[in-house]
Amino acid sequence: MRTALVIGTGLIGTSAALALASRGVTVHLADHDPAQARTAAALGAGTDESPEGLVDLCVVAVPPAHVAATLADAMRRGTARAYLDVASVKGGPRRELEALGLDLTPYIGTHPMSGRERSGPLAATADLFEGRPWVLTPTRDTDTEVLNLALELVALCRAVPVVMDADAHDRAVALVSHMPHLVSSMVAARLENAEETAVRLCGQGIRDVTRIAASDPRMWIDILSANPGPVADLLAQVAGDLDETVTALRALQSADEQKRAEGAAGVESMLRRGNAGQTRVPGKHGTAPAAYEIVAVLIDDQPGQLARIFADADRAGVNVEDVRIEHATGQQAGLVQLMVEPRAASALSAALRERGWSIRQ
Is 171-278 a domain of CATH 1.10.3660.10? Predict the structure, then answer.
């Protein structure tokens, strides 16, 4: 791949353009808002000038509702050897293209499973896709050269290719992305009018659950409008679980011992189902989740504290597998949770204590 045209210079389009440009591909940028394309160009994502001739690959990075029309326009103008989109739904846009009667041999639907709470070109980074799955949905009509160019794009962005059927993809992202976003928003909505004294008690749990609720609603309306059926089906199942859990919790208020026992059993069943589901979430490097031990370290909110902790862990010969930070409300301090292999936890705790760190159980 020597040349590419990226149509749509939001977070995903600009990030892909930055990755391609950093690896020597000449990237042309286009957007319905020329100012946004100029911003992406100023960031080093390419040039906002139109290509003089045929490019190798046209990447369409627009909202799902506009994918088919944008692709159809680019294909009719003959702008590229190959075309792909990066929308978060795949079945609908392809059916729209088929209805337009276009030759789809030069097209493949794709979806990089990566993003941020922020949107727009200023939120873009060249490493946004590194190590992340990038779904490809080829059909029997997809030309081999087109598939190869799509795989080259994935490789240049240092993502991990995953081949799926388009409709299977849409059901999967409804489960792992679209439905969780709505549930996160529903939980966060409970905070909108909550008492300030209650909100001040927010800890890491509520932060984890509501983090993705900060995303742009306009973007999510586009996404959910393109995949409403599978998301609604899943939310109906969640609603059923909520009804059962509410019934079980009400039973715990009963004066009848048998009803309280049934309520406790119902709540426990829900929690254990949650345990079982959570263990299926892939862990580090996509492997089965490992059982790490946490070494919790109290730190001040001062420059260089995290660097010192990681340097001291390195001196102790311990690999930190993951890290979380729990901030103390109203204090210039926080708790850094270092996740390590169980056999390394004692050695790391001892080494950090020797270097003056305050370890918490």
Answer: yes
Sorted by sequence, the CB contacts under 8 Å of residue 311 that are 6+ apart come out as none
| Cβ–Cβ under 8 Å, residues 50 and 27 | no
Domain coordinates in residue numbering, the chain = 3-164, 171-278, 293-360
Q: What would the mean pLDDT of 219-228 be, rounded to a whole number?
A: 89
Which of these ranges, 162-171, 221-230, 282-291, has the smallest mean pLDDT? 282-291
- Which DSSP symbol is given to 89? -
Helices 228-251 and 179-189, interaxial angle, to 10°?
Answer: 50
Q: What's the rounded Cα separation, in Å, for the pair 103 and 138?
A: 14
In CATH, which of 3.30.390.10, 3.30.70.260, 3.40.50.720, 3.40.50.300 is domain 293-360? 3.30.70.260
Q: What is the CATH number of domain 3-164?
A: 3.40.50.720
The model's pTM is: 0.76
Check if 3-164 and 293-360 are the same fold.
no
Sign of CA dihedral 40, 43, 44, 45: negative
286 pLDDT more than 90: no
Kindly report the backbone phi and psi dihedral angles of residue 241, in degrees, each rounded to the nearest multiple of 5, phi listed first. -65, -40
Q: Could you report the per-residue pLDDT of 33-83, keeping only the tens digit for each?
A: 999 999 999 999 999 999 999 999 999 999 888 999 999 999 999 999 999
